[in-house]
Amino acid sequence: MDPLILSLWLIRFAFLALLYLFLFSVVRILLRDLRVAAREPSTQLGRLVVVASPSEEPPVGSVFALDAVTTIGRDVNNSVVVEDQFVSSEHCVLTFRGRAWYVEDLGSTNGTFVNSSPVDGTAPLGFGDELQVGNARMRLERAHR
Predict the structure, then answer these.
(1) What is the Cα–Cα distance from 144 to 65, expressed in whole angstroms?
(2) Neighbour count for residue 133 (Cβ, 10 Å)
(3) Which pLDDT tens digit goes with each residue over 85-115?
(4) pLDDT tens-digit profile of 23-63?
(5) Which letter, b or e, does each residue of 65-102 get, where b requires 16 or more Cβ atoms within 10 Å of its Cβ?
(6) Interatomic CA distance for residues 110 and 119, integer angstroms
């Protein structure tokens, strides 16, 4: 066999071996990162604490962990269910965008209020602010770690 052809075949096999070694290391790193992420507790973005609830549903002092998108309303499909005759079935939605919280009224009949001011469309919400839907008031707090 010609030495040139033999050296080309050796180079091809070496390249193929390096390619498989690279792919193996990428998969190993991804699996390690997935295992580490699975072990870490999920970080909460914030929480709502019920300050006042005349209908007692949810009870005063209840704490709701917030997701990046949290819906509030009377319907059982909402993240936070508020049993109050003045709350719409889909009353408002809290969203975490970047590093800030926003509340958006979803066309509720009685409106959504932040620190006693009515929300027109979308409004920023800071930690310590009180959100009022119907007669229920909730305070946005940082998540405990």
Answers:
(1) 10
(2) 26
(3) 899 999 999 999 988 999 999 988 899 999 9
(4) 999 999 999 888 876 766 666 788 999 998 887 788 889 99
(5) ebeeebbbbbeeebbbbbebebbbebbbbbbbeeeebb
(6) 11
The span from the CA of 74 to the CA of 32, in Å, is 43
In this structure, what token pair is assigned to residue 43?
Answer: 């970080």
Q: Is the dihedral of CA 110, 123, 127, 67 positive or negative?
A: positive
The C-alpha atoms of residue 22 and residue 125 are separated, in whole angstroms, by: 47
- E strands, the chain, where? 47-52, 63-65, 69-73, 80-81, 92-97, 100-105, 112-114, 117-118, 122-125, 130-133, 136-141
Quick one: pLDDT at residue 132? 94
**Cβ neighbours of residue 108 under 8 Å, at least 6 residues apart?**
87, 88, 91, 92, 133
Q: Which residue has the tokens 């295992």?
A: 35
Predicted confidence at residue 144, as pLDDT, reads 73
Looking up tokens 């990046």 gives: 68
> What is the residue-wise DSSP string for 31-52?
HHHHHHHHHSPPPP--EEEEEE
User: How do 117-118 and 80-81 pair as beta strands?
Assistant: unpaired
